[in-house]
Design goal:
alpha/beta; TIM Barrel; Malate Synthase G, Chain: A, Domain 4; 3 domains; 8-stranded parallel barrel; 5-stranded antiparallel beta sheet; about 45% helix; globular; glyoxylate bypass; Malate_synthG; oxidation
């Protein structure tokens, strides 16, 4: 361990800070570590005090439920108010400046990508633009008859072309006829001209024409269209195989897709030491400097991936038009509750991981703020940092103060560091207005998430009784109120045309037809961003924002008033007597298999987010939020006698064999069933359940980290 400013620093991290993070900014390594030491001294004790307050609240709530069961909503509300958990409803108005249009104006898909996988991070950054042809060709978004021919299947190609024509007719209709009847597109300063068998026509709404790239001597060019703030490019290139097949030489239809991306240092990564943290930090820095490169083998050749440049067009008035080639990037830091052994104080205490994340995130942001890279992330001059796992306005206020302290240390203008608030904890949900009020000059994002929020709901009412099955939670009053109220409170605070209101992840990467059917509900609910599991999903989800005017929906929703927060207090307590033995077994098997499938990758392989098969073999995009809800549910049922300890252990043992079979072909996979006692992954999974009642807030990070560290040592 290197020693600097009284801190003990992991050598991987120390070398990264000195040689990479600080290579082109006016800050020495000594100054960096001295700054971290000051921040740690100032904020770590206050973080600890707030964590103690969380525990005190939970202990009092547990005692109340032991005495009252679920109680009535009226009694529960009175108790939480007297406790100081439930605060007076606040009605803030945000006043945030220097916000990029990707956040304030453009509604669209949002990706979340683990910072520990540079290739995926580059894919996400470059997913600002995506091929509609590829998304339709390779997914179930269009029904497929039979197997595809090797290489390019012209039958499928014709189906894709026809599907794209239908979408163009819907979203960008011509004044006369159909896009399917166009034999050539011509675009210039006079607008779009489509040649058909019966003459020429243009767009039904000429305002949808946004620009063009002039046709070259081989007939290659592009038409740029716009709707609801998003762009679509009709790429003309008859020299390609697809263009030669197309009736107007169109080689692709390219959609503006992942408008924003969260580069994740938290729930989707397994970072348990300085080496892991360095890998994650290097990705965030490389995206902002434009120097991140990933090389990998694909199809027998080496592929090199970098961030994409901007896209250039000629505007209708003849001027140059440049559009961003990359997703606007935010970074998600760790919550207040985590510490890291990557840096220790002089007396050996781990530093607050969120403090370290914040300082590194902001210093990396200097490269963008000072235009030191070939590409710009924030044209407005902000650094966007998402802060999860905050409980109530006091914790948000501390985060805001931390942001201000880092700005002062780095000489940044006040409110340069913007905050995204994850609305995933019950105390934050119930006091959302007060949380927003504490960050009124910084907040650019509030987002909901079913899994983490449900995990916190179960833990908070843990002693009230046995909770409902996971699948039944989605129909509960509190959950619908949570989703509605997140939108209502944000709109009342002035988020429209200033900040993002987000919705959660579509968890099935292979089920794109179902996503197209269902996920349009997010923009219709007033959310101007929602999470998707892949760049392909982002391109397909972009169709929803082309169809739905989100700002118009927000205006409509604003008139309905704010959902009654008392409905948040209707607890999801079930009635086990209505469940058959088969129901209970199925719920236990489903959740234990889910836990094991995720934990064995996290602990055994260091993979924080991936597509994990469920009990039926359906691949689900999983991160720690899944683990939290499943482990809390089983722990709750165990505490209330719905299941017993031996049944839980036996079920986990059976499911370990199932998970091993599902991963039999996975390189480097560490099987569990052959030695359950010696499997760090299996023991970690059991610990998550058997300590679920007492682990603060039901979080999983500490258990996972400890067992992953052990697995790395044993390896």
């Amino acid at each position: 361990m290197a020693d600097s400013s009284g801190l003990q620093v992991d050598p991987h991290l120390a070398a990264f800070v000195e040689d990479e993070l600080l290579s082109d900014v006016d800050l020495s390594a000594a100054d960096f570590w001295a700054t971290l030491a000051r921040l740690q001294e100032r904020f770590a004790p206050r973080i600890a005090a707030l964590l103690e307050k969380r525990d005190e609240f939970q202990a009092r709530i547990d005692d109340w439920h032991r005495a009252n069961g679920a109680g009535s909503v009226e009694d529960y509300e009175t108790f939480l108010t007297d406790l100081g958990y439930l605060l007076p409803d606040a009605s803030p108005t945000i006043d945030v400046d220097r916000v990029d249009p990707e956040i304030s104006e453009i509604a669209g898909p949002q990706l979340v990508v683990p910072a520990t996988v540079p290739r995926y991070a580059l894919n996400a950054a470059n997913a600002r633009w995506g091929s509609l042809y590829d998304a339709l060709y390779g997914t179930d978004a269009l029904p497929q008859d039979g197997e595809l021919a090797p290489g390019y299947d012209e039958r499928r190609g014709a189906q894709v072309i026809a599907g794209a024509d239908e979408l163009l007719d819907e979203l960008f209709p011509l004044a006369r006829g159909s896009h399917a009847g166009v034999s050539a597109y011509r675009a210039g300063t006079d607008g779009l001209v489509a040649e058909t068998g019966t003459g020429t026509t243009g767009l039904a709404d000429p305002a949808q024409y946004a620009g063009f790239r002039a046709v070259d001597d081989q007939g290659r060019g592009a038409v740029l269209l716009t709707r609801n703030g998003l762009h679509l490019e009709i790429t003309v290139d008859p020299t390609t195989q697809v263009g030669a097949q197309h009736h107007a030489g169109v080689s692709d239809v390219v959609l503006e897709s992942a408008v924003t991306t969260i580069v994740d240092l938290e729930d989707s990564v397994a970072t348990v030491d300085g080496e892991d943290k360095t890998l994650a930090y290097r990705t965030w820095l490389g995206l902002l400097t434009g120097n991140l490169v990933s090389e990998f083998e694909k199809g027998g050749r080496t592929v090199t991936r970098r961030v994409h440049p901007d896209r250039s067009y000629t505007a209708p008035d003849g001027s140059e038009l440049t559009l961003p080639g990359r997703s606007l990037m935010l970074v998600r830091n760790c919550g207040h509750h985590m510490t890291t052994n990557a840096v220790r104080t002089a007396d050996g205490q781990e530093v607050a991981e969120g403090v370290l994340d914040l300082l590194v995130s902001a210093v990396a942001g200097l490269y963008d703020l000072q235009d030191k890279g070939p590409h710009t992330n924030s044209r407005a001059g902000s650094v966007y940092i998402v802060k999860p796992k905050q409980h109530g306005p006091e914790e948000v206020a501390l985060t805001v103060e931390m942001f201000g302290a880092v700005e002062e240390e780095l000489g940044l203008a006040p409110n340069t560091l913007k905050i995204g608030i994850m609305d995933e904890e019950k105390r934050t949900t119930a006091n959302l207005g007060a949380c927003i009020a504490e960050a009124a000059q910084r907040v650019i994002f509030v987002n909901t998430g079913f899994l983490d929020r449900t995990g916190d709901e179960i833990h908070t009412c843990f002693r009230a009784g046995p909770v409902q099955r996971k699948g039944d939670m989605k129909a509960t009053t509190w959950l619908q109120t949570y989703e509605d109220r997140n939108v209502d409170v944000a709109l009342a605070a002035g988020f429209s045309h200033t900040a993002q209101i987000g919705k959660g992840m579509w968890a099935k990467p292979a089920a794109m037809a179902a996503m197209l059917e269902e996920k349009i509900g997010h923009p219709r609910a007033g959310a101007n961003c929602a999470w998707v599991p892949s760049p392909t999903a982002a391109t397909l989800h972009a169709l929803h924002y082309l169809r739905v005017d989100v700002h118009g929906e927000q205006s409509r929703i604003s008139s309905r008033g704010i959902a009654d927060r008392r409905r948040l207090l209707e607890l999801p307590i079930g009635e086990p007597s209505t469940l058959t033995a088969a129901d209970i077994t199925h719920e236990l098997e489903t959740n234990s298999q889910s836990i094991l499938g995720y934990v064995v990758r996290w602990v055994g392989m260091g993979i924080g987010c991936s597509t994990v098969p469920d009990l039926e073999g359906v691949g689900l995009m999983e991160d720690r939020a899944t683990l939290r809800i499943s482990s809390q549910l089983i722990a709750n049922w165990l505490a209330h006698g719905v299941v017993d300890e031996q049944t839980v252990r036996d079920t986990f043992a059976r499911m370990a064999a199932v998970v091993d079979d599902q991963n039999a072909g996975e390189p480097g996979y560490p099987p569990m069933a052959k030695d359950l006692d010696g499997s760090e992954s299996f023991q970690a999974a059991l610990e998550l359940v058997f300590t679920g009642a007492t682990e603060p807030n039901g979080y999983t990070e500490r258990t996972l980290t400890r067992w992953r560290q052990r697995a790395k040592t044993n390896a």
